[in-house]
Amino acid sequence: MTKVYNWQLGRDMDYPYEGAYPEQQFAFVFNINRCIACQSCTMSCKSTWTFSKGQEHMWWANVETKPYGGYPQWWDVKILKLLEDANPEGMSWDESTAGGEASPYGNYEGRTIFEAPPTSLFPDSSRVLGYLPSDEEWNSPNIYEDNPVGRKGEKGKYHPTGESLPVHNTWFFYLARICNHCTYPGCLAACPRKAIYKRPDDGIVLIDQEQCRGYRKCVEACPYKKAMYRGNTRVSEKCIGCYPRVEGKDPEGGGQAMETRCMAACIGQIRMQGLVKLEEDGAWAEDRMNPLYYLVHVAKVALPLYPQLGTQPNGYYIPPRWVPRPYLRQMFGPGVDRAIERYSHPDRELLAVLQLFRRDHRIIFRYEIEEGPEIYRTKLRGKPFTLYNDTVIAYGKNGEELFRTTVEEPLHVRSAPLQNSI
Questions:
Q1: Closest CA to 186 of 240, 113, 246
Q2: How much is the CA Rg of the chain, to the nearest whole Å?
Q3: Is it true that the peptide bond before 123 is cis, omega within 30 degrees of 0?
Q4: For residue 322, which of 179, 178, 159 has the smallest C-alpha distance?
Q5: pLDDT reported for residue 159
Q6: Which of 96, 128, 197, 287 could form a disulfide with 221 if both were Cys (CB 3.0 to 4.6 A apart)?
Q7: Any residues with CB less than 8 A from the CB of 307 and at least 6 apart, and which?
Q8: Are both 332 and 362 inside the same structural domain?
Q9: Are residues 333 and 356 in the same domain?
């Protein structure tokens, strides 16, 4: 083991290899307040990458209903139980150190999946805390879809009162997932063949199919269970981040870097994907006008999925506002309350940046805001709120303008002769 710095944990962490970081990293933000579980992302990925024989169970992109759903079933419950058992002294966050890019959420005081004691690892040759899902757990990608949690101790009964913010008594939410293309991947750490690597161009995690021998150590070690074994070829496969599109080789993009298939198909407009600049230690370099940098490090409304696992995932989520806070803190870490408060009462810039989600298939590298007129003033959840019709402008890799959009959606009125036509 060697020491690497994990800024999501706010401390150095044990990892089997020295840190090696690309100049820019593939990353994304999902706003799950907007997700409607239409499964357009799921099917766009399936129809592009995993429609062949032996890939029937492979859903590199999926949407699961929390708290009960999961693919494979119970993946998060099982890894969290293993992590809890590996931390008999408990796990906690010291939030007194929170602040700045080196430690935005505070200091995680507990073991990660790479720091579990040898007695927790099975088999003995394992380098990473994990488990292999059973065949039955891979069978149902939509298990418990739309199943809400009701009154505690009363199975099958919902809470009789009406629901209102800040927390619903009966609740569920949709968690859209792809491979997080982690900075410290569990799959890469566990592979005895060294068949898994991060692309130096963009940090996308790939499996070398010629080097893989199908030992399934990656399946066992990935805490998010996004490495999957293909029985007929006897090798493992996983999300490839649609890297030809990210490289700008998709003919549709005309040479421009494009978002992945699952991002581009999103009807609910919950997704934004991009490339962020990295420092030599793997932390995000300051890039104030990159929308992902803004959402993660400035507005701090987007949080990593299960940061306590230690993989430093590059997938971030804007938490759902109606879900009990203890559940969300376990899932997204200690920044939940601040993120929800900021999202529930957006300032002028945040409201403008949120308009960038799914306005174009091309990757946004920078944005600017042109201030517009005041159009509405009210109280929003008990606090004063003013809406301005600002224009937000998105730019590509070379500084070219991609598109511009306004905060207020335009209203188009058809002329009388065309009112009933399409």
A1: 113
A2: 22
A3: yes
A4: 159
A5: 86
A6: 128
A7: 8, 9, 105, 108, 313, 332, 333
A8: no
A9: no
Q: Which parts of 32-105 are beta strand (E)?
A: 62-66, 92-94
- Give the separation between CA 84 and CA 1, rounded to whole angstroms: 21
Residue range(s) defining the domain that contains residue 9: 2-344
Q: Quick check: 417 pLDDT over 80?
A: no
The first and second tokens of residue 240, run together, are 């490839």
- Structure token digits, residue 324: 């009990």
CA nearest 92: which of 164, 207, 173, 11? 11
Domain count, the chain: 2
DSSP 34: S
Q: What is the DSSP letter of 97?
A: G
Same domain, 31 and 112: yes
Residue type, 413: V
**pLDDT in the model for residue 197:** 97
Stretch (H or E) spanning 355: none
Residue with tokens 């959402």: 295
Domain membership of residue 19 (yes or no) is yes
CA distance 263 to 252: 15
Across 298-311, average pLDDT: 98
- Tell me: do 243 and 310 sit in the same domain: yes
Do 263 and 359 lie in a common domain?
no
CB 328 within 8 A of CB 168: no
Structure letter (DSSP) for residue 116:
-
Strands 374-380 and 401-406 come out as: unpaired
Q: Which residue type does 309 have?
A: L
Produce one character per residue of 395-412: b if its CB has 16 or more CB atoms within 10 Å, e if not. bbbeeeebeebebeeeee
Sign of CA dihedral 254, 259, 260, 264: negative
Q: How far, in Å, CA of 232 to CA of 53, rounded?
A: 8
Please state the φ and ψ torsions of residue 351, each to the nearest 5 degrees. Answer: -60, -35
95-104, 151-160, 188-197 — most confident range = 188-197
